[in-house]
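Allow me, if you will, to draw on your knowledge of protein folds for a short while. The matter concerns a single protein, recorded as an amino acid sequence and a row of backbone structure tokens. Kindly check, if you would, that the fold set down in the tokens agrees with what the sequence suggests. You will find the record immediately after this paragraph.
***
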Amino acid sequence: MTKIKDKIRLQELAHKYLQGNITRKEKNEMDHWFNQTPDEPLDISPLYAEDENAHRQAILSRIRQELGFARSGTITLWRGIAAAILVVISIAAALFYFKGDQPTTKQTAIVSKHDIAPGSSQATLTLANGKRILLSSKEESVYKQVADSKPGQPEFNTLTTARAEQYQVILPDGSHVWLNAASSIKFPVSFSSLKERRVFITGQAYFEVTKDKTKPFKVVSDGQLVTVYGTHFDINGYKDEGRTKTTLVEGSVDVNGTLLKPEHQAINENGKMKVIPVDTENIIAWKNGYFRFKSETLESIMRKVSRWYDLDVEFQSPSLKEIEFGGIMTKTKYVNVSKILEMLELTGEASFEIKGRTVIIKEQK
């Protein structure tokens, strides 16, 4: 019997296959599973689709595509794909529900009775003169700072998100910054008269920095200085995480004197630096609008969920915090929290109840 966490990973692969964006490496992984367990069914959770009809149409479209390829002879169907077609046909008949080792209907009904809506694109801009401006999703979801080249001491604006908020800002030099929930970025009104481009952040932010060899770009966070050489990277410096994580997607950055390579993460804990390789897709999933967890504890996952939904979390047993998830992905995080909790319940190791704005996590009976 395939483990629950492996089934969730296979659901993710099957979803990617249906959408037509599965990589060769992922195809091989899926093919290996079908070779090892050819008779075991795999259903794709409805949480991967906007609705049941859209999911069914994706299945039918993919089947027609593969059959068309087979008739033309241009592509030979590898065994895993052929098996996948048989599996997705069975999914349509099974109402798209993933048949785990335990029923989830009861827990889902409890969770859905009281629900919490997701966050939105919203932030507060505090100008250098102290004036505060609310930026909401009703307007542009990206704030563009217009450079102001007045002489004298540099003036700073600050963009701040509360819990259940996130926003984007384009700095005066054209650099693009995504700000996660409960975060802030302080930046000069103009870089023109400055020798360097220095910004200050709290919480989590993703950067796409415009290259300018004459003006180094630097990011200051709690106990850390990142020097940038034209690149894409993420900094997670939430206080409740207990350490600052800087993840490089492409380019090059220096973290407190340590040079990072792409797809590596610098972990700064109490001034001690450790560098590890990482799957960058997991790290920047929030910026792309969905949740993705891999080899992550339930306590860590719920910290992210609590920020985005502005809710409190109560564990009825400390051991529940240490449950580790092999792989969880949602198509979008712009769904009510019950949809996220339903997916987490598929592990069979915890159940969730919503009371007001508190999620109570219990051992699943």
About this structure: Confidence is low (pLDDT under 50) at residues 66-112.
